[in-house]
Design goal:
Layout: E1 4-10, E2 20-21, E3 27-28, E4 36-42, E5 50-56, E6 59-61, E7 67-76, E8 82-90, E9 96-102, E10 108-110, E11 113-120, E12 124-133, H1 137-140, E13 146-155, E14 158-169
């Protein structure tokens, strides 16, 4: 387990909890009295946020302006607030942002890139739900067979990512001749 020791200092005479160490290494307060502290261990391996990204539908017929619905859930399983978290989700080429279904405070979209910066409360999550559109007919066949969308996040103690894919099922219309014979008269 990787961690760091942090001391939680308290003193009834000093509301700021300022601590001085004497020549013997013993903790002292600014007035020279004995300082009392309680060591606590923060485990930064456990301080990881989680991200989950989904898309609906996961497969779709290749049609102009078809709509995909993306959901991103960024969760903080820790008993403390995680601050200054940033999330970025750049939509794939030729896929454009359509609109918000659930927009957290501070979330924005510029040039088909969803961004957010904020804090996540203890044991809470932030959910982003939005729709995106496939291109118009003339650009439709430039898309790959699978559209992958990746969301990333970063904060003081780490980063992460998740992706969601949609299979694009293409179809072609084939015209066959109709042959009719008259076997009668």
């Amino acid at each position: 387990m990787m961690g760091v020791w942090v001391a939680n200092f308290y003193d009834t005479d000093d509301p700021l909890g300022v601590m001085i160490v004497d020549y013997n290494g013993d903790p002292r307060n600014h007035n020279g009295s004995q300082a009392y502290f309680q060591p606590i261990e923060l485990d930064y391996d456990a301080a990881q946020l989680t991200i989950e990204k989904t898309v609906y539908p996961t497969s779709i017929m290749l049609e102009a302006r078809a709509v995909l619905t993306y959901t991103i859930t960024l969760a903080n399983p820790n008993p403390f607030t995680v601050t200054e978290v940033t999330l970025t989700d750049a939509l794939p080429p030729l896929v454009s942002f359509d609109g918000w279904i659930a927009q957290p405070a501070g979330a924005s979209v510029v040039d088909d890139v969803v961004t957010w910066t904020g804090d996540i409360a203890p044991e809470a999550s932030v959910e982003f739900i939005f729709t995106a559109q496939l291109p118009a007919e003339q650009s439709l066949y430039l898309l790959p067979d699978v559209v992958e969308n990746v969301a990333t996040f970063a904060y003081t103690y780490g980063f992460g990512m998740d992706s969601a894919t949609t299979e694009l099922i293409s179809y072609q219309t084939i015209f066959l001749p109709l042959v009719v014979r008259n076997f009668g008269n």
